[in-house]
Amino acid sequence: MKMTLRTGALATQTAPCLVLSVFAQEPLSGAAADIDRASNGRLKALWEKGDLSGETGRTLLLYDVPGVTAERILLMDFGKSSALTRANYRKTLAAAINAIQQMHAGEAVLALPAILPDGMDAYLAQREAVMIAEERIYRYTHTKNDKHAPKMPLTALALWLAEDADPAVAERAIAHGAAIAGGMRLAKELGNLPGNICTPSYLAAQAVALEERCQALTVEVLEAEAMAALGMNALLSVARGSRQPPKLIVMTYEGGAPDEQPIVLVGKGLTFDAGGISLKPATEMDEMKYDMCGGASVLGVMEAACALNLPLNLVGVVPSSENLPDGDANKPGDIVTSMSGQTIEILNTDAEGRLILCDALTYCKRFDPALVIDIATLTGACVIALGKHATGLFSSDEALAAELLTAGDRAGDRAWRLPLWDDYQQQLDTNFADMANIGGREGGAITAACFLSRFTKEYRWAHLDIAGVAWLSGKEKGGTGRPVALLTQFLLERSGLM
Ligand code: BES
Ligand code: MN
Ligand code: ZN
C-alpha cells in the first residue's frame, strides 16, 4: 500500500473517498466541522436526524456531498470522546478500512480524530492507522482462491494533516508503521502456511530470500552435521523423529558499529508439533503448524530492522524442526546431553520447544550478546494463565523486563510479567539427569522458563511465551504477527529513534 501525506483544505481534496472522524452525540469538530461548513451543514443535518450517533466502530457512507470534491465521504464513529480507548480506536479504523474495500474506491484520504485515546500521541495514532490498514489488506491466498476478496483493495492511503500537525512526525509514523506492518505480514504468512509447505527447509529458504532483500543482512544455515559437531544433542533428538532435516538459521544484521555487542533474538521454529511419542490429542492439532511463530517473528523483526535501517547490531537465531512420532523419535525417559553439557531426562516428548531452544541459547554465547530475548509458543499453560491477550514475559533482569513491558504498552502489543523465582526450579529435579524437561502441572509456563534459564546464565536474558497471542482460532483463525510490534518498538527505543 502506498502511503502519502495531504494538507490543505479538505473540501477540495480530490479523492475517491474522504474518511472523517466523528464522535457520538457530540458537536462536529475538526475535519468533520470543516466539511460541514463547506457542505452547508450537510453533516449537521445528519447529526440532527440521529444517524451519526451510532456506536463505536460504525461507519456511514455519503455520496455527492455538496461543496466537496471527493467522490465519497466515509464517516467513522469513534463513540464518546471521553470513553475513547485504544481498542475502540483500532476497531473503528479497522471498520473504516473494511468499508473502503467494499467500495470501488481503491484510494482514500484519511483524517484521523483530533481527540486521541489515553497514551496515544499523534505519532502513535498515525503509525497505528498505517498498521491497521496493512493488517486489513492482508489476505492469505497461498493455497486458495480468494473468493471473498474485497471489491477493490485499498492500494493507496493518504493521511490528511491539519495545519498545526507536524509533517516530520507523520512521515516518521508512516515509515515506522509500514516497517512494522511488513514484518508482521511476513510473520503471519509464515505462520499461516501449512506444515507440509512451511518446513524447516522452507523457513531457511525464506531467511535466505530475506538476505537478498536486505543489504545489511547475512544469513547462515547450519545443517544437522554442523549441529552434531557442536554437540546440539537436545535439538537433534527432537529432529530425529522427523523426515525433515532440521535447520539452525542464523541471521546477522549489521547496522551498528562493528565492535558493538549485538542484541540476539532466538525464535522457536517448530514447523509442526504433533507432540512426538507423547502424542497430542487430535482436536485442533492442525493449529500446531503455528508452533514456528516465534521463529517467524524473528524473521519479521529482521525485515523491519532492515526497512528502518536500525543503527544497531542484531542476530536472529531460529532452531527449526518438526516434532513427530517415529521409530527413531525421543521416548519418555530418554536422556540427552545438551550442548551446555547438562543432561536432560525427556519425560514428555511434547515439551520439545525447550529442547531445541536450550541448544540455540547455548550457541548464542559466541555472539558476546548485549542481551538475548527468546520468543516461543512454548506452553499451553501460558494460554491458561494469560489468555489470548498478553504475551508472557519472564526475566530476572529487572531493567530488561521493564523495557520490554513498556515497549509492549507503547506498541499496543502487550506483555505481562510472570515470576521466575528459584522456588520453582526444584520442580525440574529428577533422579536420573541434571534436569527433567517438564515440571508438572503447576506453573507450567514458569517451569518452562526455569528450564531455559539454566542455559542463559552468561548473559542478560528475557523469555517471551507467545503461545496465546501468536494466532487466533475459530472463524478468525490466522497468524497475528505478534510480537513483532513489541520487539521492533524495543529496538527503536534502543536505537534512540524514539
Ligand atoms: N507448542 C506447544 C505449546 C502450545 C500448546 C502452544 C498449545 C499453544 C497452544 C509445546 O511444545 C507443548 O506441547 N507444550 C506442552 C508442555 C508440557 C508437555 C509440559 C504443553 O503446553 O502442553
Ligand atoms: Mn509440544
Ligand atoms: Zn511445541
TrEMBL record:
Similarity-based family: Belongs to the peptidase M17 family.
Active site positions, chain numbering: K280, R354
Signal sequence interval, chain numbering: 1-24
Keywords, ordered alphabetically: Aminopeptidase, Cytoplasm, Hydrolase, Manganese, Metal-binding, Protease, Signal
Cofactor note: Binds 2 manganese ions per subunit.
Residues the record lists as binding Mn(2+) 2: K268, D273, D291, E352
GO cellular component, one term: cytoplasm
Pfam families cross-referenced by the UniProt entry: Peptidase_M17, Peptidase_M17_N
GO molecular function: manganese ion binding; metalloaminopeptidase activity
Cited SUPFAM superfamilies: Macro domain-like, Zn-dependent exopeptidases
Binding positions (Mn(2+) 1): D273, D350, E352
Function text: Presumably involved in the processing and regular turnover of intracellular proteins. Catalyzes the removal of unsubstituted N-terminal amino acids from various peptides.
EC assignment: 3.4.11.1, 3.4.11.10
Catalytic reaction list: Release of an N-terminal amino acid, Xaa-|-Yaa-, in which Xaa is preferably Leu, but may be other amino acids including Pro although not Arg or Lys, and Yaa may be Pro. Amino acid amides and methyl esters are also readily hydrolyzed, but rates on arylamides are exceedingly low; Release of an N-terminal amino acid, preferentially leucine, but not glutamic or aspartic acids
Gene: pepA
Superkingdom of source: Bacteria
Membrane-spanning intervals of the chain: none
GO term, biological process aspect, one: proteolysis
Domain Cytosol aminopeptidase: 348-355
NCBIfam families xrefs: PRK00913.1-4, PRK00913.2-4
Protein name: Probable cytosol aminopeptidase
InterPro entries in alphabetical order: Leucine_aapep/pepB, Macro_dom-like, Peptidase_M17_C, Peptidase_M17_leu_NH2_pept, Peptidase_M17_N
HAMAP family per the UniProt record, alphabetical: Cytosol_peptidase_M17
Entry's localization field: Cytoplasm
Cofactor dependency: Mn(2+)
